[in-house]
Amino acid sequence: MKVASRYCALALFGLGLTAGGAYAQGIEVVRYLSQETDPAVVRIQRAWVDGFIEANPGTDVVLESAPAGVINQRIATYVQAGAPLDVVHSDPGTAARLAVEGLLAPLDDVVEALGGRDAFLNNRLLIVNDHVYAINQAATSPQLFYRKDLFEAAGIAPPTTWAEVRAAAKALHSDDVIGIALAGGENRMTTIMAGTMLWQNCHDFFDGDLNVILDHSNAVEAAAHYADMLQFSAPDAAAWAFNEPPEAFWSGRAAMVIHWHALDLMMRQNPAMVENIGIAPVTANKMRATQTGGRYVALFANSTTLETGKDWIEYIFTPENAADLTGMSPLLYPPATSAAMEALRSSDAPTVAAYGDLLFDTVYPAAVDGYSEILHAGGLDTETCELKTTGVVNPFTSVVWNSNLYARAVQKIAYEGADPAEAVAEAAKLLAERVEEARSEMK
Amino acid sequence: MTTSYPGRAQRKQMPSLSASPRARRAAAKRRFEMLLRMLGAVTVLMIVLLPLFWMLASSFKPNIELFQRPPSIFTANPTFEHYVELWEFTSFPRYFLNTFLVAGISCLAGVIISLITVYAITRFEFIAARVFAFGVLIIYMLPPILLALPFFRIWYNLNMLNSLWALGITYLTITLPFSLWILRPYIEAIPQALEEAAMIDGCTRFQAFRKVIVPQAWPGIVASFVFTFVVVWNELLYSLVLISDEAKRTVSLGIASLILETSVYSWGLVNAAGVLATVPVLFLFAFAARQMVSGLGAGAVKG
Amino acid sequence: MTRDRKVGLILLVPLIVLVLGLTVYPIIQVISLAFQQQGLYSQESTFVGLKNFASVVNHEGFNRSLSNTFVFAFGSLALQMGIGLPIALLLNKEFPLRTPIRGVMLFSYLVPYVVAAMTWKFMFSDSTGIINYWIRWSGLPIPASPFGSLDWAMVGVIFVNAWKNFPFMVIVFLAQLQTIDRQLYEAASVDGATAWQKFYKITLPSLLPIMLVVGMLRTIWNFNNFEVVFLLTQGGPIGRTETLPLYIYRFVFGDFSLGRGAALAVIVFFILLVMSVIYWRLYERTQGRFK
């Protein structure tokens, strides 16, 4: 055993040396920093890397990923130290803030090479001072999915208004089935869903001058409504984040879910139920506003491999490559260009085969017509509930999504019986403080 | 037991006859106690093994059975699809090599440095053993979350973020106190006369160290290596903060990436990964169970 | 001898370098960060005195996470000892297959935190969990999904932490139990002592010093434990399981406020320092009694 241990140690040491020495020299390395950890998506990214290196000898792409908080902290540390970063795949709020802070490189040539701004679908380019600084790759647009069999058995029509959603959730909620799978944890998922309710209720976090306007009766109503719906979610919804709602749906436990990941997960996890799900576009109470959020691809201005970085971004947005990604995860990655949309339509992607027209008629248009709070601050008219394009980039939305204050208000109402008006007023106050802090940091 | 001497037989039988019900009762009681002990042991095993068993069983279930209600204990259609998926979709084999490398660096370095440090302290008596032990305790109690942030900056400044070597060196903050603690009683127990004799025989100090101390302390060396290896194998926070390169993840981080907030997971995949991550530690344990247990006991008791 | 002392000094160099580089320097850095404030994307940082400390202590979550940490640390300790002691007593007795059972019992100590947390989460999950299903089926008055329950989440994380770490207690107690002189028990039996009396008069007193030592050590570990809570509940629901390490993590990786995170880390550091000194006192006193 003594000998064995010694050999073991030697082997480990040797392994270490080889790993250390394997660092190649003289190659242009682009780091691609993302929050993507879904193995299926990572696999596609790896295929891109192989293709890219083959097409561009002398280059390499390093895929880096970590949870959102760790990635954003990492970006901040690099920036604070004045160190170069390359391509990042960041959340919309961070992209907007980085662009406004002047830290990103313009991507106008990339956009030109991909066919110009007109080749892109609505709301996919982050434009500041008439330069494109980031391209939306993942335009999440939540949809309401429902189980056809359960609805038919109960004789309920697919809901079209929030009142009907609630009524259906209540009617279908039982010991075995939860009415609607909604997350109630203090996390970004709940914030996104509560934000969706807020927009649906004709209100917004910011006005067109980037002031926090959350302390409003419509915001209170939306939070109370969400909290109210949580009683028809799972008993442990207070701990739910991104994964649990779609999981409850594909596992057959939930009658409805609002999510952007439900289709591909259903296909991957429980193909038998694919036929059994319908989409009721969210929704038609007062207006149709869903979040066009997702993630933006951007390039840091201080990158030491600017040109290769741009080539990489161009490469991942070529119609075929973009269609590969969308084919894997249709709602999370709606195509960014019309060309990619066409490539997807004619591809043999499993989701296209499974859902076909549903994707092209319902899912993707919602992403195109959705509300983008970062590109059009104040674009949700709180009087008429109409969407309009303002072109005012909002660099402060990440404060909303990182602090989860609105989600906290919903939790307090739902689980601690707090007064909705007080809970939302407190969230609004804290949010305004944080935004002011961020504003003062931005000189 | 028949005998030709009835009187003697009777005499012999008398006490045994009168004691027989008591003896039988005692035997029954002993058997009952044994049964109780066995029952207790089985309960303990159930609590310990249920999650592991369920993980193993689930890793072979097709997706559709993972969330079936009522849950089936054993699947009728065992499948390797999750393991195949793990192999094809993720870099798990890489994660294993990475973790072996990191654990190798930190555990080996930890053991070697502890060995010479403890040797120096017990043989040369620079500082009081008390001060030394207290110092070790202080390092031991530092919360990783406290150090994670400065480590992030230090490695960043040295341009070694995403480096497995940096992670291995960082893990020394965990492995060093453990191996110092575990090794100290072993080396203290080696009589100084033993090396002095070796040195009188013409050995240099180094030779004496190699030929006397190392073999004598070998069980402790194995114990601290195995124990710190398990600790490093299981560590998550530092790797979460320091490693973002997808190809440089450790096993724990690889699994965590499959279940963290923003990621989408498949339970089959996660269960398969969990099984694979558990195998090496169990294997190592089977290899050096006794040393590890005694090392743990010694480390905890003797401080 | 002087040459010898030089050798000894040289032998200490690696440790000293490592302790300076891996402990002293990072701590100094944390302390200096705690007095500074830096914009998220700006390169200059300003000295702000005790502002970070004030804002951390006045934050609504501070008292909650402080008390959560103590509940978690001592609750885990109580449960670990509560499980560990009877099991150690059991495994100290003779019965068939004792040795393999002792080994297998260690498994939960060996599995990675990620695996332990993941499996328990899986088993208690509302959609997929087998224990969740059993509890709901049996109608027992315990929550089927504790990690999402405001009242039971802390119990859940303490349970998983205890499951993971109780074998450590068993090993330590077993080691101590084996040092107890058998003749004491025999003498007690002759005097007609009951099993309970034997435990109370002989076993417990000899275990007490080690219980104190290990208890304090474990408390510090539990105090520092990040993984269990992070993986099971991320501090939720509504902060019910947010312990100080999670709270630091939230400041640094949620609010991106290094200064506040560092200030909190410094506070935690001093709490632990006090606990370590108490531990040290206890330890030395019990050592004296040992010998």
Round the mean pLDDT of chain C to the nearest integer and report it: 86
Instruction: Examine the secondary-structure arrangement and name the CATH architecture of the largest domain in chain B.
Output: Orthogonal Bundle
Assign an overall shape of chain C: globular
Biggest interface found:
B-C, 84 and 94 residues
CATH superfamily of the largest domain in chain B: MetI-like
Question: Can you describe what's shown?
Answer:
The complex is a heterotrimer of chains A (443), B (303) and C (291). Chain A has 443 residues and is α+β, with helices and mostly antiparallel strands. Chain A has two domains: 26-139 and 293-363, Periplasmic binding protein-like II (D-Maltodextrin-Binding Protein, domain 2); 143-290 and 395-441, D-Maltodextrin-Binding Protein, domain 2 (3-Layer(aba) Sandwich), CATH 3.40.190.10. Helix content of chain A is 48%, strand content 11%. Chain A contains 19 helices and nine strands. Chain A has helices at 2-21, 39-55, 68-80, 92-100, 108-113, 148-154, 162-172, 188-200, 217-229, 244-250, 262-269, 306-317, 319-328, 338-345, 350-355, 357-369, 397-403, 405-416, 420-441; strands at residues 28-34, 59-65, 87-90, 125-128, 131-138, 143-147, 256-259, 277-280, 295-299. In chain A, helix 8 (188-200) crosses helix 9 and helix 9 packs across helix 19 (420-441). The longest helix of chain A is centred in the C-terminal third of the chain and has 22 residues, at 420-441. The termini of chain A are far apart. Chain B folds into two domains: 6-59; 90-302, MetI-like (MetI-like fold). In chain B, 79% of the residues lie in helices and 0% in strands. Chain B is built from 14 helices and no strands. Mean pLDDT of chain B is 81; it is low at 1-16. In chain C, a hairpin with a 6-residue loop joins strand 1 and strand 2 (45-47). Chain C has a single domain (61-290), classed as Orthogonal Bundle (MetI-like fold), CATH 1.10.3720.10. Chain C is mainly alpha-helical and 291 residues long. In chain C, helix 12 runs antiparallel to helix 13 (258-290). Chains B and C meet through helix 1, helix 4, helix 5, helix 6 and helix 8 of B and helix 1, helix 3, helix 4, helix 5 and helix 6 of C.
